[in-house]
Specification:
Length: 441
């Protein structure tokens, strides 16, 4: 990677210098193919780009663009593209297409990220003549642009409210692949689904590598570490879990009061009688068929918990990991399937852990993750500040502007009660489909 990076930077710099000599600005379109570019790398600034353009479908791609280092201008290229058909061949600007509805649905996904991180510009790409038969699309893009300018003005006054603790996502890549794990949103990949939920939540998120953990431990201010992925993947950690110091650092950190959230096969590294290296922290492990025994601990599913308060039924985590078994009475199972826990909590020393057998980006699961973060951090009494009762509605408070932005993430009208920063005062808000409201607070 370093060899390729050296070449791409050296050659790219020649192209950028040529653009600058002609009095123009050089932007990089960061999207399908980015070998040697790595905009989260400290070396990205060596290119000398003036700006970065990111094609976006969803919230974590907005956060990825906002997180890029070494450029002055960050721009989003919105969907739908001004092409006759969409990426999957569906009609867009053709008979039978509805580009206005497409634009609304893409926008409400991306807008969640825009509430949390500032972007400088937005744009569309393609053939402008295609919009002529769709005046409603032109009108909606005008409305969308006004929304963007308003959100940008709020960010100009400072950051929105975030939780009183930080969250770290632990992967082999760490900050080099912040807010990305497989190009665009690849469904059924647990980490993609999870960071899409994270991208719109009021939490300060950083991406931590195992090498960072070995060198400096868990960063100051972080109260929750998330490890999400399948055994052997860069996201779960693969060979890093053979390093005893990783286990020691996280075990001590949780025991002293940290929070750990494991998804799918966290800390997975097979050895006789054990798969999860942090099974003692999680209070559970996975049996893939090698354990021939009758004595698995019998549990009862807890009828209620802070984390599951807003669920209307059994959680849907997509493609679940099966064969999970608890290690004793200290593990509280909140949901299960066919005798395998799907959602569980465990106290470990002064710390706490949460396990989910998978993850899928939905309104309810995003709320479940939001609550799980606060519970793992032992800050559940502070969760209600700037919270919405309706899981399809989210909000962001900008203290320097004294503005509360409320967004409807659904394609149908929604109503919610809002709890303000004191945790007691409530307001009721109704929003149209895809709608937004600004409250003075």
């Amino acid at each position: 990677m370093e060899f390729i990076h050296d070449f791409v930077i050296a050659f790219g710099r020649q192209c950028i210098d040529l653009v600058h000599r002609h009095g123009k600005k050089a932007f990089v379109f960061y999207d399908d193919h980015w070998i040697g570019v790595e905009p989260n790398s400290p070396r990205f600034a060596e290119f000398g780009f003036d700006g970065l353009i990111k094609c976006v479908f969803n919230a974590f791609e907005v956060r990825l663009c906002a997180n890029a280092r070494g450029v002055k201008t960050r721009e989003l290229r919105l969907h739908p593209y001004l092409f006759p058909t969409g990426l999957k061949g569906e009609p867009t600007f053709k008979p039978g297409g509805d580009p206005t509805l497409d634009a609304k649905n893409f926008w409400i996904d991306a807008r969640r990220g825009l509430l949390r991180a500032p972007i400088d510009r937005i744009g569309l790409g393609g053939y402008l003549s295609l919009v002529e038969p769709f005046p409603d699309f032109v009108d909606y893009i005008d409305q969308l642009a006004q929304e963007f300018r308003l959100l940008k003005s709020f960010h100009d006054g400072g950051r929105p409210y975030t939780a009183p603790f930080k969250v770290a996502v632990l992967t082999a890549w760490g900050s080099l692949r912040s807010w990305i794990c497989s190009g665009h949103f690849t469904h059924a990949l647990e980490l993609n689904e999870l960071i899409e939920s994270l991208a719109g939540l009021p939490v300060d998120v950083q991406f931590l590598s195992f090498d960072d953990l070995l060198r400096r431990g868990v960063p100051r201010g972080v109260r929750v570490v998330i490890n999400c992925g399948r055994q052997g993947s860069a996201w779960s950690g693969g060979h890093y879990w053979t390093e005893p110091r990783i286990n020691e650092i996280l075990t001590q950190w949780v025991h002293r009061g940290g929070g750990f959230i494991g998804v799918a096969e966290p800390s997975a590294m097979p050895e006789p009688g054990q798969l999860f290296k942090l099974s003692h922290v999680l209070g559970l492990d996975r049996d893939r068929g090698e354990r021939i025994a009758n004595g698995k601990y019998k549990y009862a599913v807890a009828p209620a918990h802070f984390i599951t308060t807003d669920l209307t039924g059994a959680p849907d985590f997509g493609k679940d990991i099966d064969g999970i078994y608890t290690l004793g009475a200290g593990t509280e199972v909140l949901a299960d399937k066919d005798g395998s826990p799907r959602l569980a909590t465990h106290a470990f020393g002064r710390g706490r852990s949460v396990y989910t057998s998978g993850f899928k980006f939905t309104h309810e699961n995003t709320r479940l993750l939001h609550r799980a973060l606060f519970w793992a951090a032992a800050r559940e009494e502070q969760w209600s500040a700037w919270a919405c009762s309706n899981v399809r509605i989210e909000c962001a408070y900008f203290p320097k502007k004294a503005k509360l932005v409320v967004i409807n993430n659904a394609g149908t009208p929604q109503k919610t009660s809002l709890t303000l920063g004191d945790g007691r005062t409530r307001k009721t808000v109704s929003l149209p489909a895809h709608g937004i409201k600004i409250l003075d607070v």
